[in-house]
Amino acid sequence: MDLGIAGRKAIVCAASKGLGRACAMSLAREGVDLVITARTPGPLEQTADEIRSATGVSVKTVASDITTEEGRAAVLAACPEPDILVNNAGGPPPGDFREWRREHWIAAIDANMITPIEMIRATVDSMMQRGFGRIVNITSSSVKAPIEVLGLSNGARSGLHGFIAGLARKTVKHNVTINNLLPGPFETERLRRNFYHVAQVKGITVEQAREMRRKENPSGRLGDPAEFGDACAFLCSAQMGYVTAQNFLMDGGAYPGTY
After folding, report:
1. Residue 118 Cα to chain centre, angstroms
2. Which class for 179: exposed (0-12), middle (13-18), buried (19 or more C-beta within 10 A)?
3. Residue 162 burial by CB count (10 A; 0-12/13-18/19+): exposed, middle or buried?
4. In terms of Cα–Cα distance, which of 200, 187, 196, 168 is closest to 252?
5. Please, which residues have CB within 8 angstroms of residue 34's CB and are 6 or more apart in sequence?
6. CA distance readout (Å), 226 to 19, 80, 178
7. Is 249 left (phi over 0), alpha (psi -120 to 50) or beta?
8. Nearby residues of 22 by Cβ (< 8 Å), 6 or more positions away
9. What are phi and psi of 179, to 5 degrees?
C-alpha cells in the first residue's frame, strides 16, 4: 500500500535506537525526509547513516536533549514546519513510589508530558494552515494497565493522554490528527533495564526475568521494534485522516480488558 506521504518531512524524537529508530526507518521507507534527534551523537549518526543507506531519503541529525528548551529549539531550527511529528522520550526509571521526591515527579512530567506538548505547540498551527499533519506520541501500555514499578511513567504519560484527548478533536477538521502508540514489552534497551530491576528485586537473573515476561505474554514472545515502526508509519499515512485522539495498544494481547 502506498501510504501517500512520500516527500513529507518528519521530526522523530529519541530516534537513535529502540522504538524511535524503528519509527524513523519505517517512515523513511515510505519516502519521508527526516530530522532525527537523540542525546548521544555517535549512535545518532550511525542510525542516520543506516537509514540513508537503506532508503535514500534525506536524514538530518540534531544531537540534543529534547526535554530541554535548548534541545527543542535546535530540532525546530532544523525542521521548523514538519508534516509529521513523532514524540518520544526515554521513560523514567522504575522503583518504589516511597523513594521518589518532588524532583523525580517533576522530571518525569517534564520529559513525558510537557516536552511532547511543547513540540506540538510549536508545530501544530503550521500543520493546520497547510492542511496536513500527523502527530504520534509514543507512550506506554501502562496508560491502559498501570505497571507497579513504573509509577512515574504511569502518572506522567496519563497526563499527556488527557491533554491529547481534548486537543486532537480541535485539529482533525484541518486534516491534522494526533494519536498515541502504546507499546507493551518490545525488545529494546529500555525493557532490558526493567528486566535488570525485576531481577534485583526478585533475586533472579536478568535472563530469567526476560523469560518470565516472555512466557506471561499471550503471544509467547516480545515485540519486534520493526512492527511498531510500521504501525507508526501507517498512523502517519494519508489514509488515516479520519482517525484521531485514539490510543493504539501494541502489547501482544497482554491487556486483559475488552475496551
Report:
1. 15
2. buried
3. exposed
4. 187
5. 9, 10, 11, 12, 15, 24, 27, 28, 51, 57, 58, 59, 60
6. 8, 27, 21
7. beta
8. 225, 226, 228, 229, 232
9. -135, 165
For residue range 140-186, list pLDDT tens digits in order. Answer: 998 998 878 788 988 999 999 999 999 999 999 999 999 999 999 89
pLDDT value of residue 147: 78
pLDDT in tens, 237-253: 999 999 999 999 999 99
- Greater confidence (213 vs 25) lies with 25
Helices 225-235, 18-29: crossing angle, 10 deg rounding: 50
Joined together, the cell numbers standing for residue 220 give 509467547
Say yes or no to pLDDT of 26 above 80: yes
Q: Does residue 43 have a pLDDT over 80? A: yes
As given in the structure block, the three cell numbers for residue 126 are 503550521
Whether this prediction's pTM lies above 0.90 is answered by yes
Which three-class secondary structure state does DSSP give residue 61? strand
